Amino acid sequence: MKSISASLLILLFFTYCKPEEVKIIEFDFKVFKLELPNTWRKIERNGIDSFVGELTDGNDSIYFDYGRYSSDFKHEDDLTQLFSKEKVNGKKAIITKPTNYGKGLVGILFKKANHKNKFVLAGRNLKNEEIVLEAFKTIVFEDSEKDTIPIKFNFNGDFNPNIGRNLFMQNCASCHHPSKYGTGPSIKSMDLISMKKWILDSTETKRTETIADKFYHQKKFNQYLSEEDLMKIIDHCE
Ligand code: HEC
User: Fold this and answer.
1) Cβ(217)–Cβ(199) below 8 Å
2) Mutate which of 217, 219, 232 to test ligand 1's pocket (most atoms within 8 Å of Cβ)?
C-alpha cells in the first residue's frame, strides 16, 4: 500500500508539476538576431554612441554592444584566453573563450557587423559556456547569409589576434593608422601585393632619398617580417 501511494505521488508530481519544456527561441533585436533557450530573457539599454544590452538566464549574463566604437578583445590576455577566427553566417568573426572553463571571457566580435558598425557579445566567468558558444553561431545581421553547413569554432591555438596587433603596433603604427591616412597611407587601403613589393621584395633596392620610401621599408622590415606576418598585420587592420 505504502509503495502504491509513493508511485501515485510520483505520477501526480509528473502530471501536474512537469517542468516547463526548454525550447530554443529567437531573440530579435532588430539590427541583429540570435537564438537561445527560452530560459533566457533580454534587457535592452541605451548606450551613448551605440546600442547596448544584456541577455541573462539568471545564472549567466552576456552583454552586447553594437556601434562604431564598440570595444574589442584587445585587453584579453592570450595566456588565459583561446581565440578562433571563423565566418558566422557569412561575416568574419573572432571568438574567444577561457583556457580554464568558467574563468575568463566568452565572446564574439564582428569588426564589420554592418553599416560600419562593430558588434561584440560577451560574458565573463560563465557557468555554461556551451550554450553561449552555440548562440554565437546563430547571430545574424540584416544582410547576413545564413549558413547551411554547421559552423565550427576551432580553438586549436593557430589564431591569436594579439600577434597581428603587436606586429602592427611595434613596426607600422607610428606612421600608418589602421584605417585613416597618417604619415603614410592606411594599412587597410593597401593590398598584399603592394605590401610584398614594399617589404618582402629585395630585388628593387634602388636607393631613394625620403625616409619612408620603399628602400626604407625594405631595409627595415625585409629581414624579419614574413608574408605570414604581413597577413597577420592586414588581418588586424581589417
Ligand atoms: C617611419 C614611418 C613609417 C613606418 C614605421 C612604416 N611606414 Fe609604410 N609608409 C610610410 C610612408 C610615408 C609611406 C608613403 C610613401 C610614398 O607614398 O612614397 C609608406 C608607404 C607604405 C606602403 C606603400 C603603400 C602604397 O600602396 O602606396 C606600404 C605597403 C607600407 N608603407 C607598409 C608598411 C608596413 C606594413 C609597415 C610596418 C611593418 C610600415 N609601412 C611602416 C611610412 C612608414
Assistant:
1) yes
2) 217
Which CATH number, 3.40.50.920, 3.40.525.10, 1.20.1300.10, 3.40.1000.10, labels domain 20-141?
3.40.1000.10
Q: How many CB atoms lie within 10 A of CB 64?
A: 27
Side chain identity, residue 145: E
Given this model, what pLDDT does residue 10 score? 56
pLDDT of 103 > 90? The answer is yes
Question: What residue segments make up the domains of the chain, in order of their start?
Answer: 20-141, 161-237
Q: Give pLDDT, residue 210.
A: 62
Mutate to test the pocket of ligand 1, among 172, 204, 226 (most ligand atoms within 8 A of CB): 172
CA 204 to centroid of ligand 1, rounded, Å: 16
Average pLDDT (142-161) is 90
Sequence letter at residue 179: S
Q: How many CB atoms lie within 10 A of CB 184?
A: 15
Instruction: Quote the pTM value.
Output: 0.80
CB 176 near ligand 1, within 6 Å: yes
Q: Tens digits of per-residue pLDDT, 16-53?
A: 555 668 899 999 999 999 999 999 999 988 777 789 99
User: Is 234 a pocket residue for ligand 1 (Cβ < 6 Å)?
Assistant: no
**Most confident residue range from 70-79, 101-110, 175-184, 211-220:** 101-110
Instruction: Record the cell numbers describing residue 168, joined without a space.
Output: 602592427
* Pick among 3.30.70, 1.10.10, 1.10.760, 2.30.29: CATH of 161-237: 1.10.760
Atom 37 (ligand 1) nearest CA? 172
- CA separation for the pair 199, 204 (Å, rounded): 10
